[in-house]
Amino acid sequence: MSEITEIEKPSEILKTVDEVIASMQYRFHPENCTNLKAIYQWQLKNPDRNFYISIDCGTFQITEGEHPSPNVTVETDTEVYLKLVNGQMKDVIAVVTGKLRVRGSISTAQKLNRIFI
Amino acid sequence: MIQEKELSEKFTKLLQKLNDASDKKQMSMLLDHPWHSPNEGIWLKKRENLSIYGTEFYDYATEEERQRLSIMETATWWHTFVVFENLVTEYYLKIINHESLKAFPEVVRYMHHFCREEVTHALVFRKAMKHFNIPPFPVPDNLKDFYKDNASIIEFPLKAIFLTILMEWFAENNAMLDCNNDFVSPLSRAIAVEHHKEEARHIEWGKLMMREFIEVVPDFLDDAREYTAPFMRNLLDMATCNPETYDRVGFTHPAFQDYERLFETVLFSENRKQINRKIMEPLIRFFIEIEVYTPDYHEIWEAARFGEDIEFVLEKERRKIVENDNLLEIPISHV
Ligand SMILES: [Fe+2]
Ligand SMILES: [Fe+2]
C-alpha cells in the first residue's frame, strides 16, 4: 500500500537492513504513537530476514524473527526494501507492480508513516 | 444497544423503495445484453481513458496495441468484479447467517437481493470474458488483502458495508467513465450500464446504512478517518495499471520494458489525475458529509495524494455549487 512505509529520504544511503534498523531510533517519533499498541512484522526475502517492531504507547522495540499475530505484515525483497527506505523507489510503484505486499489492518499500517519519519 | 435502535422513517421508506425495485426487476444473464454484436476490431473502453493516454507511452504504442489495451484493461476490470462480487457475496451471506442484523428484517431482505444480484453480475462478467476469449487475470494479492483483512465481521458489520460501497462506488464511476459512450462496443457499454442500474441501488443502500448507523457503532468513525484515504488511494492506483495487462498486449516498443518508469508515468499523468478526480469527487463529498473527512485529518488525505481533490470539492462548497450525488436520480446517460 502506498502510504505506510517509513520513507522520507534519509540523508545518507542505508546499504543494509542492519543499517536501516540502527537508524530507526533516530527516526522514531514517540509523540505520534502515544496511544498505540501494535506489532509490525517485516518479512524480507533474498536474503531472508524477519523482524518485527512492537510499538507500545510511545516506545518501540525491534525483535528478530516472527511474531505469532502481528497487526500488520509487510512482505518484500530485501533489495526493494532498501530502495524504498532510501527513497529510490516510490512505495506505490512497489505495490502496483506486486513487489510489496501489505497485510493486516490498513488503519494501523498507515500510522507507521508518522511514527518513523 | 444497536439492536434496539428504532429506524428513522426516511430510512425505512428508502429501504422499502430499494426492496421494491429489486423485487420488480433484476439483471438477467441471458436477456439484458447484446451478446450477438460483432467482436472484430472493437474497443471496450474509451481511448482517452486508456492508462497510457496523454503520456509518451501512448505515442510509443501502435494503434492495434492501443485497441488491444482497451480490451485487456476492461477485461481486468471484469475479472476484478468477478473476484470481488464473489467475496462480497460470501461476506454478506456470512453476515446474514451471523444474525447480527436480525433486528432489522427489511435490511436483511435487501441483503438477500444484493447477494442475488452480485451472483448474477459475476456470471455476466465471466460470460463477457469468455465471449472475448480472455483467460482470467491473477488478481493482485494487495487488492484482495485490503478488502479481506479489513472487512472483518464485528458485532455490527458497518465497516464491511462501508468498505464494500467504497469499492462499488469507485468501480462504478470508473466503469461508467470508461464505457458509457458511443465509442465503445455496444456489448461493453451494455455490460457497464446494466451493472450500473443495480449497483446504483447497492451504493445508495450503503450510503443509507452509513447515515442511519454511523452514530451508534462505537469507534467506526475514528477508524474510518484513518483508513479511508489510503484505502481509496490503493484502489485507484491498483485499478489503473497492472503488469499482466501490459504483458498480454505485448507492446513492441522497448520503452515498455521499463515497468517502473511506465507505472510511474501512468499513475502520475495529468490525464489520470483528472479521471481520478471525477471518480473521487462524489465520494469526497460523502466523506465530508458523514465526517470521515474532517480538517483534523487532512494530513492523512494529503499523504494519500488527495489534498488537491479535497480542496477542489471544498471550493465548490464555498461557492455554493450543489451537486446531486444520488445515483438513483442521475440519468444513466449523464453518469
Ligand atoms: Fe456488482
Ligand atoms: Fe454491488
From TrEMBL, chain A:
<protein>
    <submittedName>
        <fullName>SCP-2 sterol transfer family protein</fullName>
    </submittedName>
</protein>
<dbReference type="Pfam" id="PF02036">
    <property type="entry name" value="SCP2"/>
</dbReference>
<dbReference type="InterPro" id="IPR003033">
    <property type="entry name" value="SCP2_sterol-bd_dom"/>
</dbReference>
<dbReference type="GO" id="GO:0005829">
    <property type="term" value="C:cytosol"/>
</dbReference>
<dbReference type="InterPro" id="IPR036527">
    <property type="entry name" value="SCP2_sterol-bd_dom_sf"/>
</dbReference>
<feature type="domain" description="SCP2">
    <location>
        <begin position="31"/>
        <end position="116"/>
    </location>
</feature>
From TrEMBL, chain B:
<protein>
    <submittedName>
        <fullName>Para-aminobenzoate N-oxygenase AurF</fullName>
    </submittedName>
</protein>
<dbReference type="InterPro" id="IPR012348">
    <property type="entry name" value="RNR-like"/>
</dbReference>
<dbReference type="InterPro" id="IPR009078">
    <property type="entry name" value="Ferritin-like_SF"/>
</dbReference>
<dbReference type="Pfam" id="PF11583">
    <property type="entry name" value="AurF"/>
</dbReference>
<dbReference type="GO" id="GO:0016491">
    <property type="term" value="F:oxidoreductase activity"/>
</dbReference>
<dbReference type="InterPro" id="IPR025859">
    <property type="entry name" value="AurF/CmlI"/>
</dbReference>
